[in-house]
Amino acid sequence: MRITITGATSLPGLSLLDVLLREGHEVRCIVRAESPNRARLGGRNVEVVSGDATDEASLARALDGVNALAHVAGVEFAPQVVAGMRRAGVERLLVFSSTSVHSRYEFRSGPKHRGEEAVQESNLAWTIVRPTMIYGSELDKNIHRLLRFLDRSPLYPVFGDGKNLWQPVYHEDLARGALSALISTGTVGRAYDLPGADPLTYRDLVLTAAEALGRKVRLVRVPLEPACRALRLAEDLRLPLPVKSEQVLRLREDKAYPYEDAKRDLGYSPRAFTEGVKLEAARLREIGLVRA
Ligand SMILES: NC(=O)c1ccc[n+]([C@@H]2O[C@H](COP(=O)([O-])OP(=O)(O)OC[C@H]3O[C@@H](n4cnc5c(N)ncnc54)[C@H](OP(=O)(O)O)[C@@H]3O)[C@@H](O)[C@H]2O)c1
Fold this sequence. Notes:
The chain is of the alpha/beta class. The chain has two domains: 2-131, 3-Layer(aba) Sandwich (Rossmann fold); 136-167 and 197-255 and 269-292, UDP-galactose 4-epimerase, domain 1. It has eleven helices and 13 strands. It has helices spanning 11-22, 56-63, 78-88, 106-120, 143-152, 171-183, 202-213, 224-236, 245-249, 260-266, 273-286; strands spanning 2-6, 26-31, 47-50, 68-71, 92-96, 125-131, 134-135, 155-159, 165-166, 169-170, 190-194, 200-201, 218-222. Helix 4 (106-120) links the parallel strand 5 (92-96) and strand 6. The longest helix is centred in the middle third of the chain and has 15 residues, at 106-120. NADP nicotinamide-adenine-dinucleotide phosphate binds next to helix 1.
């Protein structure tokens, strides 16, 4: 297939790109002119179109002559992307959304819902995939920071009781699931949650990450409500913070998701966090981001 991909410079985008190339597809990437991440595509046999996924002219160039669009850059841009596909006459659309669409917090779920609605109402041949937290390399947003912190600190602050559930997905498992969602028959008009193998508590996630590094860590419980109040105050004062109050609030919510549909339709079989985080620790060690 000839496939255009948005968001190819992100971790999930790069992983999907690599799996598409390995499977022999021809790939065109739409990358913003000002992207500081363009070099990440280096060494790959891809066509790069400079442009913005929200811009009509860019989409027309990027979609000319392709069979499908893999839209990784953000479901929030779905209305513009859908309109661009209609104009270009491209029917097949794979969209990355997020399991945060299931969140009870509107600030998390609302934008994803609205984006997904634009896709679902589009009459295109769409499939939506919803990753949980993505991890596996220095390009991830959370676990690599956790590993680097644990590499340096014998103490780790856990907000609340740490019993809330997480189910992060290893980037390569997600990429294989997404490819399968794009090419398998019977996936049109369906949305698939793509989490890691099993949920684990936040405490266990931190302890497992420390073990992957070969470090010992002591968890220090930080009461949730006072921490949120302090963070909100600091935000009002516009102080730079490593974590937002809304992120801490969301720690009260379990992020565990069944994936029977993905198993059945996509042959989805993600690895356990214990296994994936060891791979990530090895990667960070190799590039010198954590100690040997
Ligand atoms: N990270 C996670 O743990 C996670 C979890 C669940 C779902 N997701 C979903 O996975 C996707 C990627 O997430 P991410 O966290 O990896 O995001 P990210 O790091 O912010 O990357 C976004 C990607 O989209 C590109 N992009 C952004 N705006 C664009 C525009 N207007 N036109 C063209 N390209 C644009 C960025 O390119 P530049 O190189 O120009 O920045 C980058 O490649 C999103 O759909 C997100 O909702 C992520």
